[in-house]
Every structure is written in structure tokens, then in C-alpha cells.
Design brief:
4 helices; 155 residues; alpha+beta; globular; 7 strands
Length: 155
Amino acid sequence: QSETNNIRNLRMSINDYRINRIIGKGSFATVFKAFSRKTQKPVAIKIFSKKMSKQEEELARKEVSISRTIDHPNIIHLYDEFRRNDTWYMVFEYCGKGDLDKLVGKKGTHKYYVGMLKEEIVALLAVELVEAVFYLAEKNIAHRDIKPANILITD
């Protein structure tokens, strides 16, 4: 119930965006699906915890700084970033199909099962991932956490 109250409070405090639902949680941030009040298009809003350590805050600053310099079709776009009442908000492109982890499912507890995906889809995802990683490498940026849960699917 407190999470519901937090969403209600966020709706009032984020004027440009209408919060819809939680779509992910990390160690120091929660990601919400939201809608731009201006365009009515969906976005993902990453809301950082007010109680971040100095190290976590530095990681968040780096994420913002790097995200501002990136412009590649296979890398999620940062639309906006702002602070209100000591809370940090990052507004990203919304990837409606979820992540690769959910797309392929899991077989057992430790192996990713990709047999359900057509070979052409796997090849396309591999090419797009390599293009994105190559782009980052050209800019001397290392992702350092590439895994199926961090590969987001748009269509």
C-alpha cells in the first residue's frame, strides 16, 4: 500500500509525466512506466533513492553524463533528467517489449532457453548488440553489465 501512495505522490510532483506502474527495481533506483503529458507517449522514468551513498550517486552522475553523449539507434535514449526534493529522475525511451531475459524465458534455474526464438531474430539481436557495443567502444565507454535483463526490446 505504501508503494501505491508513493505513486500517487509522484503523480502530483512530476508535472510533465503521469506515472503508470513499476516496471523494474534496482539496488538504488526504481523504474516506472509513465506517459508524457505533452506527447501522451510512454516513457520510462528511473527514480533514484533519496538515500544513495556517495558511490551510488557518482555512478548515477556517470550514467547521466554518458547517456547525454550517446546517440545510437540500438541504445536507449535519455530524454530528460532532473532533480526535485533531493530525488533524481531520469526519463528514458520506453521499450515496450521488456527485456531479453523475459523474452527468451529460462529453462531450469540457470540456463537461458533460446530455442523458442527464430534463428533470424537471434541473429538480428546479436548484430544490433554488437553494433551498440562497437559504438560504445569507439567512444571509449565500457558498459560493464551486459546481460539479458539489460537488453531491452522495442519491437
